[in-house]
Amino acid sequence: MDSRSQKNLNSLYEPTRNRFSGFLAEVQILAGQKGLEYRAICGTRTFEEQAKLYAQGRTKPGKIVTNARPGSSFHNFGFAIDCGVFEGGKYLDETNPRKAAAFHREAAKLCAKHGLRWGGNFKSIVDMPHYELDTEVTLAEMRLRKQQNLPLL
């Protein structure tokens, strides 16, 4: 596994890491069979990092990339990763989005067996690179647990 993916996996809430690691290991095999790499390009984000992303396309330049305010993303609690498709070192999500999207759809077929949900099924903003823990714990409960220094799960 590449160092960036490992770093992002290590940033996740510890009790969830095995699910994400298992998914990523399996999907990397699939990617390798197609001459691609699938890397975890983002893991846990602080509330401040989330605020900057939320501002993009609103009060800062760029296109809107999230509808999640700080505390309203599974990334803020270490329960989500974003993955990128690479070929020959090139980030296909930017250079060949059609090919990247096709692979994200293939990868998504593997996520449920690892207890994950795919952002490509989101209704408000389709987020193909995104995978999050499939949990019944709501974001409101996570925010409260975090404030009270309680385990998130």
Over the alpha carbons, how many angstroms does the gyration radius reach?
15 Å
Number of strands: 5
CATH class: Alpha Beta
Q: Name the structural class.
A: alpha+beta
How many separate domains make up the residues?
1
Distance between the termini: 27 Å
Second rung of CATH, namely the architecture? 2-Layer Sandwich
The overall pLDDT, averaged over residues, is: 96
Could you please say which CATH topology applies here?
Muramoyl-pentapeptide Carboxypeptidase, domain 2
Strand fraction: 15-25%
| Inertia-based shape | globular
Write down the secondary-structure element order. Answer: HHEHEEHHEEH
Number of helical runs?
A: 6
Q: Specify the helix fraction band.
A: 25-40%
Structural descriptors:
alpha+beta, 39% helix, five-stranded antiparallel sheet, Muramoyl-pentapeptide Carboxypeptidase, domain 2
Provide structural commentary.
With about 150 residues, the chain is an alpha+beta fold. It has helices at about 5-10, 15-35, 45-55, 90-95, 95-110, 140-145, and strands at about 35-40, 80-85, 90, 115-120, 130-135. The protein has a single domain (about 5-145), classed as Muramoyl-pentapeptide Carboxypeptidase, domain 2. It contains 6 helices and 5 strands. Strands 1, 2, 3, 4 and 5 form a 5-stranded antiparallel β-sheet that branches.
